[in-house]
Amino acid sequence: MAQPAAIRATPPPRRLRQETRRRRLVADRVARWVVSAGGLAVVLAILGILVFIAAEIQPLLARPQVAVLRALPVAGKSGVGAVLADEHRALVAALSADGKVVVLRTKEGTAVSSTDLFAPNPAPRLVQMAVVPESRLLAAATADGRVVLAPVRFEATFTGDVRETAAQVGPATVLTLDPAGQPLRRFAAQMDGNGNAVVAAQLANGTLAVVRRSSEKNEMTGETSESLERKETPVALPLTALVLDADLKNLYGGTAAGELLGWPLDGATPGPVRTASAGRSAVTALALLVGGRSLVVGQESGAISVWFPVHQANDTYRLTRVRDFPRHPGAIRALAPSPRDKGFLALSADRLGLYHSTSHRTLWTGPAPIANSASLFYAPKGDGAFLAGGPKVAEVDIVNPHPEISWTTLFGKVWYEGYDRPDWVWQSSGASDDVEPKLSLTPLLFGTLKGTIYSLFLAIPLGIFGAMYTSQFMHPAYKRYLKPMVEIMASLPSVVLGFLAGLWLAPRIEKAVPALLLMLVVLPLLVLLAGAAWQRLPRAFRGRFPVGTEALFFVFVLAFGIWLCQQLSQPFETFAFGGNFPSWLSRTTGLAFDQRNAVVVGLAMGFAVIPIIFAIAEDAFSNVPRNLVAGSLALGADRWQTVTRVVLPTASPGIFSGVMIGFGRAIGETMIVLMATGNTPIMDWNPFNGFRTLSANIAVEIPEAPHGGTLYRTLFLAALLLFVLTFVINTVAELVRQRLRERYSQL
What we know:
Blueprint: H1 14-61, E1 65-73, E2 80-85, E3 91-96, E4 100-105, E5 111-116, E6 126-132, E7 137-142, E8 146-159, E9 162-169, E10 173-176, E11 186-191, E12 197-202, E13 207-217, E14 224-234, E15 239-244, E16 250-255, E17 259-266, E18 269-270, E19 274-277, E20 283-288, E21 295-299, E22 304-311, E23 317-325, E24 334-337, E25 343-347, E26 351-356, E27 361-367, E28 375-378, E29 384-389, E30 392-399, H2 407-411, E31 426-427, E32 438-439, H3 442-472, H4 476-489, H5 494-536, H6 539-542, H7 551-577, H8 581-589, H9 598-622, H10 626-634, H11 639-667, H12 671-676, H13 694-701, H14 710-744
Helix pairs in contact: 1-14, 3-9, 3-11, 4-9, 5-7, 5-9, 9-11, 10-11, 11-14, 13-14
């Protein structure tokens, strides 16, 4: 039978081959452009995010701007001794030595009104004048031993979009401090929101006199009754400065010898005096910062210092010098506290300075717009100030949005009001606006590292050794199912893990701490004993099972060990910890036990990180050339020696990459640490208390942070810090991985 002739393949026409080649080139170029454009878009997106974050952070680093706007002439025969203004700086009220209060419109410099405080009686000569900013009170001491208090009220009305501000002065209150009619040496006045006023003064004979005017309104009839209370106490030294707090509970004084004196007030009765030494230079000015706890002291030498009461071991408080600022060239004549923060203005004869206590910053210094000014007033919104001297009032504009930020407040120890010593503290809000904002990022950095380290304690050993066993010892039939199951664990949402850790795991861990401590000893011991027992079984018996299937035996051993530790938990807790582990921990070591703690986070976040480390490490083990393994076994090494001395070093670059990727996953985790910790920003390695991380803090604080405020921008700084931290870690990890790869590439 004849065989069919072979069919020869006909080559495609030349034109068709050229078109095919051209299409491939076009497809390659398009693919290259798309991939390049995608990569460039990713880089640009990351750079855009960085630029945006930097733009939000930049105002934190900007220096305050202070500028003299104008000088207003005040008509009158005597000079201005005290001045205050409304919150919009539209009107300014100036008190002169002839007892008149002149209200000026700041932009035009025109007089709106003039009020004689003593009309229709003749005005006595005013020898001392002062302004009480928090009470919007003008105060003055007369030459006959009296003190006059003149409240100034500003009211704003709107006609369409136009704001009109009106001022009302008085009625004035006159209180007699010295019945003998002698001039007062120094005086201080204050009024609270209920109309109660306290005036303290050192009389010509050296006695300290305190007068309290109490005002009480009858809610039934609407009538207001007033009462006066006057007390005296001897003072050995002549006072050069006096100041009262806004709560009318504390009086502070300074002497020519540099002594600071403090009296607690019970009504008008001064309590036992407390003393402190500010040095040999005379105290020339005193001011209390907002909140009434920090005392700013200005001295004749130009020194400026901040003091506040510090709790002592005997349950008392001692006025302590906390901060010193650069000296002025001359004596400090006036101090004006900011009504919005812990900042203040200091004035000497020809120098004006802007400072902030908490950040310990000298924000600005420059020449005073009026030489030898007699009065200094910080505007209610903290955006300006007024100086008065002679027949002029000068307005100063202040742009100072973030005075509380410095490298020290962000990363260093700061001595805050009410604290016994300097410390790292994050407390972005308080019960009132008087509380210092505490924006230290150090506790958040510490918490981030603490949570990461505790989670890696669990994730690294289980991930690496699990990958080693799966790749090198487990039977391929089981490996085919185990590896996908572990990798599926990585798809679990972190919010689910955080929910389970916070609401289900944490209460159980609190009761099972003794069992966990037992597991640290019992489980490794049981595994070793089980392994030794397995090796002692007859080889014929062990040969019936495929290599690697002994893992099922160890699963039952571990399950038995966990059950055994749970059964022994209560007897062990009674024997070792007196029946209650949290109480024993607090009583013996002084450490606190919180239900949501680092142990819970370590278990939950370790569970989230294990699949990442396991998957990458298993691929690294599996990609070791088989000829290396075969050569090692052929030279007489057993399986364990081959894995530890050949496979492990060769796979070390990939293992290190897996660990670093897991580290990055843990350091940026948000939901688990947010839900499974107490979110307490404390610095303590105790595994049984909570912490707060950078990422969780951003998630908690950013919804309530005022846009453009200091907290808002500080949170962006925390985001940048987190980005830089992960970038540096990943860069170092990549460099180490390359070094390891080069080192073991010749194996």
